[in-house]
Amino acid sequence: TPGDAPNVLVAHPGAGFRSVKDLVAAAKAKPDTLSYASPGVGSGLHLAGELFKQQAGVEILHVPYKGSGPALNDVLGGTVPLMFSNLPATLPSILTGKLVALGVTEAQRSPAAPDIPTLAEQGVAGVVVTSWYGLLAPAGTPADVAEQLAQDARAILNQPAVRESLKAQGLSESTMAPAAFAEYIRNETATWAGIIRARKIVAQ
Fold first, then answer.
1. pTM reported for the whole predicted model
2. d(Cα 119, Cα 127) in Å, to the nearest integer?
3. How far, in whole angstroms, is CA 53 from its chain's centroid?
């Protein structure tokens, strides 16, 4: 049973970018002079950045950190100008003007922040990346137990108060059956393995 959190490309206000088109133009004019922060090599947000570079045809330096907190702190401080982040983590800073939201990595705009355009709307297609969270059980868990856990999770996620709480954080719920969720994980693994090979990303 996964839940999705949109990802968003953000910039420090001092970087001067107000749109993805601004960023792409600057990156093409001066390759490898801009940088983006991530929670670490091979993290989902690092891969989102690499996919963006591939689809936009730009080269932006990757600056890995040990976790989202340190990465976000340095972008807020202006040490690094850019970052792909979870929308729930950055939305408060976006709303207060401490960060500029350049675009969400979704097929459609997020209901939690409908004023932020998608990357595709701004000319960078093929970067649809969400951060998802799921409930998993140990391998070997009996099928009837896994199904009961899935039913319990669905019941909780269907409660109006829970849905409203998730929506307020920019999250959306999904109630996949165990087999469908397992297939989703397999597909995600295959997709990102291709990006890792194409971008020559090596674990550190």
1. 0.79
2. 7
3. 15
